[in-house]
Amino acid sequence: MVIELRKSVRNPDYLPVTVNAINSKDGTVLAGPFSSRIIDISSHGACLLMTQIIKDRYHIFHTVQDHASHLLELTINLPPDLIDYSIIARPVWMDIFRQQEISAFKLGIEFIENMEGKKMQKLKTSIMKEQEQRGSWWSRACSAINK
Question: How far is CA 128 from the centre of its chain?
């Protein structure tokens, strides 16, 4: 029996996002950019689909987990406004994603930002504009691959 432990409902999506590992003390970029897609998102976190998780010996999950000052900075470029939103997160789990010949990684992240702050509210509003179409496309794409 699987017990759902998430704090909030996740919505399927398919948003392009750039991920950098940063030093939270001074904001310097430690590794990246890593290209990614958000495949589901909630108020507290998201699931990223990534084809690459290591760059120059820096592992986006394990190295961040091993250093308390390392975090992830996600930059989301939302159409149609094409405004870059940056949000700070921490990785909490990682898994393999396999669909027929496609292999990638799934990375679960938890947002560090204040969920009720202006920045998060603005991001939520922008994401919701086209979320249903993107989420529907991603669900159909996964269903077609699984057939």
Answer: 16
